Amino acid sequence: MRLVFVGPPGAGKGTQAKVITEKWKIPQISTGDMLREAKKNGKLAPELVEKMGKGGLVPDEVVIDLIKQRTELPDAANGFLLDGFPRTVPQAEALNDLLASRGQKLNVVVALDVAKELLMERACLRRTDKRTGQIYHLKYNPPPPEADLEHRADDQEETVRNRVDVYEKMTADLLPFYEKAGLLRRVDGVGDVKEVTARVLSAIEQSK
Ligand code: ADP
Ligand code: ADP
User: Fold this and answer.
1) Catalytic annotation, pick one of 2, 13, 36, 199
2) CA–CA separation, 52 vs 39, rounded Å?
3) What backbone torsions phi and psi does residue 129 show, to the nearest 5 degrees?
4) 122 is known as an active-site residue
5) For 2-114+174-207, which CATH superfamily applies?
């Protein structure tokens, strides 16, 4: 199973991806996580660190290269879930070409829909455990006292607003691209985490 999660910042992609990938034993591949890791290790060019900090997109070649290398690893042989990639039509085309060159294709693209007003609260109150990567929310999924919490540099109100705008511009082309390919499934991302998981699973099931 090769699938893609698309959705605005704070929609719940990471949260849902974790459940699905554990269930199917496939890796979750998040370009955002990979870029943050590279940044932490001092391996991300300063101009890209600045771009990310402001909520802008990094160049297509950078993320395409990351995906190319990551999907070649043995744990991705039976499938993977891409979270946060592709974000542009050139990225989507590059992914198609990459998969085609390996005789593979995408099964489904799940778009998580969440209204703008809710995204601000979801992203700004998001906290992640540095050691485990577990995603928490100060109001909806409070962390245990022993968690070693991290607040993402780009989860500030103004930056989140900018990221939501960037997302809206980008999806204006990306979603129709996948709609035309017959791969797009839209899922309502508002409600309990478990409720949303059930909707995601049912959307994937229908596209098998
Ligand atoms: P994304 O990867 O799309 O940016 P996350 O999965 O990190 O989103 O979720 C953003 C924040 O919203 C996190 O704090 C998470 O705990 C919380 N969250 C995720 N899904 C839900 C939901 N269904 N209801 C309420 N809060 C949620
Ligand atoms: P979120 O989970 O909030 O949707 P991500 O963690 O996916 O955000 O991405 C964080 C940042 O990393 C983005 O704002 C962008 O700067 C960069 N980034 C991640 N994936 C991509 C991509 N596919 N193309 C360009 N930039 C990306």
Assistant:
1) 13
2) 10
3) -80, 120
4) no
5) P-loop containing nucleotide triphosphate hydrolases (3.40.50.300)
